[in-house]
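Hey Z.,

So I finally got round to the 4'-deoxy-4'-aminopyridoxal-5'-phosphate thing we talked about over coffee. Here's the setup:
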Amino acid sequence: MDDITRTYIDRTPGSAARAERAAALFPGGDFRAAAWHRPYPLTIAGAAGPWLHDVDGHDYLDLLGNYTALVHGNAHPAVVEAATAAVAAGTCWAAANDHMVELAELLVDRVASVEQVRFCNSGTEATMHAAMVARELTGRRTVLMARYGYHGSYDDYEAGNLGHPGPRTALAPFGDAAAFEAVLAERDDEIACVILEPVMGSSGVVPAPPGFLARVAEAARAAGALFVLDEVITFRLAAGGAQALVGVEPDLTTFGKLIGGGFPVGALGGRADVLAVTDPARGRLPLSGTFNANPVTMAAGAAAVRELTGDRIAAIDRWCGRLADGLSKAAADHGVPFSCRRAGSLLNVFLSPEPPATVAERTDGDLMAAFHLACLAHGLFFAPRGLLATSTVLSDELVDDAVDRAARAFASVAAD
Ligand code: PMP
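And the result:
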């Protein structure tokens, strides 16, 4: 066994014991594929602000925030207060509540293209509902997405994430507007919607080239398809979402992650005339869900969105830049190959001299795994595939602390 793995195992007996129990209970011991890694993931006992605490008594600087959902860090007081009051008031009921109106108004006020909203319980449900709406309105079946794009675990989108066109999934390369136009022109009686991320998140923080989204939106509309922007991750990039930065007004926008304040959430927002198909009085596509718009998620989410001001967005972007610069320098100091790609407060690191076009095409898998494990052993937490996201509870000092921890991990990688 290599030294990095040995150190990780020696330091985390409590997590190891739990992983052993999990192995009997969950297929492959896994509860969430993106969070799984060898030899086993940590068991976290609790978290506060920028820190995660594991069951063995170690602290980790949290540079992931549950895959970007916790934009204000862990247990943020404003979010905890809102959620606690909602829990004490009775968690959920099959009737309306005030918090859902509050959160919907925040989204409608902030995001120019969003006139109305439907809440659900995950980003996956939001993107699935987008496809259902588009299929119902157009009478067509196929979704067109970017190869290796990620829109959740609905199978029509998973096919695209894995890079395979499916029976109801068409693909084109992200950033190649002409390729999207060609598919839309050739298959204009089949494509119900085009769905794109403004920045491919799971695929390695790949920003759309200038003009790409607007061109595809126009081609989609010309072909009679809906244009859906998936802002599950990118809503954190500007008060009005990434669409405000790129100047595109989609027919539908999907949200998730941060708008639930750390509770399960999804939302489909968009033009009122499009979402009208889900109006139960009209009977075409009623959407239901036991926990849709539940008061706890809505209260926590409203607090989180309210706290995400333009100034704070500027701060998390700045810290992410400082982090990227610090990591690049630390890697160079230790002679470890390194590259990264950043968009605002999102960063993906690669242990290769140049970043691959997407995570699916990376060639640094073993080195990345070693670096990730070494970072954990030095108290730095981020995604196994190298995704990092800054949060509003960081500071210049904490970012520098993160870089110091990463520098020690680079030293371990160089020694191994
Ligand atoms: N869309 C995008 C762009 C995502 O990044 C994700 C999750 N990482 C989803 C949809 C699915 O969201 P969830 O995990 O809440 O189902």
